[in-house]
TrEMBL record:
GO biological process: protein localization to phagophore assembly site; response to stress
The organism of origin for this protein: Esox lucius (Northern pike)
Membrane disposition: Peripheral membrane protein
GO molecular function: phosphatidylinositol-3-phosphate binding
Upper lineage: Eukaryota, Metazoa, Chordata, Craniata, Vertebrata
Alphabetized SMART domains for the sequence: WD40 (SM00320)
Name this protein carries in UniProt: WD repeat domain, phosphoinositide interacting 1
Family membership noted in the UniProt record: Belongs to the WD repeat PROPPIN family.
Cited InterPro entries: PROPPIN, WD40/YVTN_repeat-like_dom_sf, WD40_repeat_dom_sf, WD40_rpt
Localization, UniProt: Preautophagosomal structure membrane
A Gene Ontology cellular-component term: phagophore assembly site membrane
């Protein structure tokens, strides 16, 4: 069910609350760590702990630089927007409140509270998405205005959702059912539903878009099959089999920057890397070999077998694998180009970051290149001085002092109070400088600590 923004929205800041990979349920999450997440282009790692959160640069395999360390109690969600200074934090002490900070200036941009626990937050250059168990809120990241509220979404206790990092293709994916693996594709730019993809027979466990927002990978709670679909059409493009012996819990999926590879981590000791390549006519057809002949025989035989069996025969296996030292540990993985080489990064629940080299031609077992402690003890903190250019070209903001804005207030249950206005919402005299490559997004500081009465 969809409603326009304002029909039911976030409760104003200051109201105490009770508390696309699925976000941790408040109070659970990564053992030892409250959370761990890579930013949208896998250049930064954010970790939340009982005492605060830290941001690390992962652009080099030589050392792990801690670029920010902040104190806050029981952080279980921390998300950084690309390489900017904007970071979103949610704490167990106020699990219904989202705080948005400019971490380099040490200032709070704004905060929003919601009618239920926040389970996950997703960001791109245009949108900020907040996922609750039965609703989704879509904000304009430039001014944090609430654009859309998706109410009565299927029960989603893990907060599973995925947002394309391509702001031009700003698609949002979330479960369309609590009992089977349906995926709703929603256009977060135009605020409209695009399609529904019947992806799996069992409920969804993991979702992720590729960098361009043209492909979506999914896995179900069984964890045996991973499928890739075209976006927005919803056509199945690839099907990969992680294994057949046992059901597993897929904890994360991630495409490589060029969409050539897809990695999947789970609660087992093995991480699988699949290669996305279409199998067309090859040289083998011109020069038949015994292997190609057997392959054709299997392909022909599969047409006479039950659908489930023939499906297994047509599914691709892992191109490369990683064997972790310990199983049954929750982890988050990503594929990135670091120092011009393809790498697999794995952040584990015991606070370790593992970096593996990938052979893009041969695949096989990946080689451990580097292991770092995410606590970064003894590592030099890197906080380079950065220029702070103006946003004047993109955002016109009066400089004569704070300008009060009139916003509709929200009642405790999330419904708008008719006729009530909140004059206390104020903006800073100047824009926030986020110190990234193109100074995005032009977010304005909100000095108000209350949106409703």
């Amino acid at each position: 069910m969809e409603t326009e923004a304002g029909a039911e929205g976030p409760i104003g800041p200051g109201e105490p609350g009770s508390s696309g990979e699925p976000g941790p349920r408040p109070g659970t999450g990564l053992a030892g760590l409250g959370c761990a997440s890579f930013n949208q282009d896998s250049t930064s790692l954010a970790v939340g702990t009982k005492t605060g959160y830290k941001l690390f640069s992962v652009t080099s395999v030589d050392k792990l630089d801690c670029i920010h360390d902040s104190e806050a109690p029981d952080v279980y969600i921390v998300e950084r927007l690309f390489s900017s200074s904007l970071v979103v934090v949610v704490s167990l002490s106020m699990p219904r409140r989202m705080n948005v900070y400019h971490f380099k200036k040490g200032t709070e941009i704004c905060n929003y509270s919601y009618s239920d626990d926040i389970l996950s937050v997703r960001l791109n250059r245009q949108r900020l998405v907040v996922c609750l168990e039965e609703s989704v809120f879509i904000h304009n990241i430039k001014d944090m205005k609430l654009l859309k509220t998706l109410l009565n979404t299927p029960c989603n206790p893990s907060g599973l959702c995925a947002l394309s990092i391509n702001h031009s293709n700003s698609y949002l994916g979330y479960p369309g059912s609590a009992t089977i693996g349906e995926i709703i594709i929603y256009d977060a730019n135009n605020l409209s539903t695009v399609t529904m993809i019947p992806a799996h027979d069992s409920p969804l466990a993991a979702l992720t878009f590729n960098a361009s927002g043209t492909k979506l990978a999914s896995a179900s709670e069984r964890g045996t099959v991973i499928r890739v679909f075209s976006v927005p059409e919803g056509q199945r493009l690839f099907e990969f089999r992680r294994g057949m012996k046992r059901y597993v819990t897929i904890s994360s999926l991630s495409f490589s920057p060029d969409t050539q590879f897809l990695c999947a981590s789970s609660n087992t000791e093995t991480i699988h890397i699949f290669k996305l390549e279409q199998h067309g006519p090859s040289v083998e057809e011109e020069c038949p070999t015994w292997g190609s002949y057997v392959g054709k025989m299997f392909s022909a035989a599969s047409s006479y077998l039950p659908a489930q069996v023939s499906g297994m025969m047509s599914q691709d296996r892992a191109f490369a694998t990683v064997r972790l030292l310990l199983a049954e540990q929750r982890n988050v993985c990503t594929l990135a180009m670091i120092q011009k080489l393809p790498r697999l990064l794995v952040a584990s629940s015991d606070g370790q970051l593992f970096i593996y080299n990938i052979d893009p031609q041969e695949g096989g077992e990946c080689v451990l290149d580097k292991e770092e402690g995410a606590e970064a003890e003894g590592l030099e903190v890197s906080l380079p001085a950065q220029a702070c250019p103006s946003y004047a070209a993109t955002v016109a903001i009066p400089t004569s002092g704070p300008v009060p804005a009139t916003l509709t207030g929200y009642s405790e249950d999330g419904g708008a109070r008719k006729g009530e206005v909140i004059p206390e919402h104020e903006f800073a005299a100047g824009p926030v400088c986020l110190d990234d490559e193109n100074e995005f997004p032009p977010v304005m500081i909100c000095n108000s600590n209350k949106f409703w009465k």
